[in-house]
Specification:
single chain, Butyryl-CoA Dehydrogenase, subunit A, domain 2, Butyryl-CoA Dehydrogenase, subunit A, domain 3, four-stranded mixed beta sheet
Amino acid sequence: MSEASSGTAAGGLVKNGAEHVASVRDGRAVFLDGERVADVSTHPAYRHAVESAGVLYDYQAHSDNLERMTFDVGGGRRINRAWQFPRSYEDLVERRKALVEWAELSCGYLGRSPDHVASSMCGMMMGIEVFENYDVKRAQAFRDWFDYACKNDLFLTYVINNVQGDRSKAFGSQGKGAEDMVARIVDEDASGITIRGAKLFATSAIMANELFVGSGQPLRPGEEHLAFSCALPMGTKGLKMLSRKSFEAHAVSEYDNPLAYRYDENDALVFFDDVKVPWERVFLLRNTDMCRAQLHDTPAHIYQNYQAQIRLSVKLRFLVGLARGIAQTIGTINFPPVVETLGKLASQAALIEGMVFGMEAGGAMRGEYFLPNKHLLYAAQVQSQEMYPQIISTIRELAGGALLMLPSSVRDFANPELADIISLTQISPAMSGEQRVKMLKMTWDAVGSEFASRHLQYEMFYAGAQFVTRGHSYRTYDWDRASGLADRLASKYRLPEFGN
């Protein structure tokens, strides 16, 4: 039993959906369209996303799923397997299967579901010696908070990016008037630190329980005031979330926008308006290298991105299924070029899934814990960043003009005259006109809507720009082994002797 699987927790056997939905009614300060949102669980911009988060917990709490989705932490309490520390290849596979089941509930569209940041925090705990070598007190603060978070099966999100500002300048050198652009330490006393400024990107913060604050971007000497990490409940005084446009709020209906209607996890800028963080919630302080080390010298970065590739493999499977559904819907399924295209799409989806399997099979022990193969992980990120836009573009090509000739909304079916015209014009060899429209509406929400555009941008950049992921791939590849093949071959022959 790992550190994450000891102790007891209050409450029932396992966290369920009703408990989670109730937990977000904490007075959190969310702002949308110039106004503060009173309750994200009932607001038209967020209620279905919050409900979708609740569905995850209801799924794990169902008696048929309990053993697969959760594990025992003692005292009659069970928590999601995302918190489980794998001690073997078999443990890692068991954990991955549970994460796949969660991802399937949203077809992979909840990019920052609860298992994402939980995976990152587990990685930090697996490397707790990095914190201990830095500062024993800060290490204990992280241990205690992690213990609380995992035993209560909290939905965590994080903000580890700084506001872009002027990219030609350092974060701490943006000029006069920009002092509060990036979250910084403005005070420190016996009770804790005070931070002021902004952080990005608080994906799923609207429906999460707590926020981990850190820095995933390099900081320079002189930027120690930007170097800290901590954790805060979403309802903390002074913590303000500026929501981006809600695609859920603009979804016409579930029939018209089935993905945006349920799975718009939202993104927000978080502004810390002189937020007081008690010392028991501060994990590092004024150490720029430790900001890097907590992610990269521990397994945190590996585990958070391993989860992301598991989730993406499900999303790609869904998209490839949509592609085949389009071909069946419009009657091109037996066209040789279409079969060829579908075959390529299937190979692309299988490539990522296969690389996930490879990460596990090629994994190794780090102390007492089993880690996925980090180079295969970063290689998969490089491939998926390029592949996702290609897959979206290919699906659009397969659909052609079919996506442009759809009824304006589900309400058209309520008009008998329009319904007759729809039945006459939405012809499909595989289904009714209503089913055809439904399939194509779903496809548009996945590849062409504003919601779809956000997901395209997310999949291309959530792990950093391409030069970042390619850099990780370069850094973790076994170059000695690769170069050794050429060196050994070259050593077997030499320049021949030439006579005069």
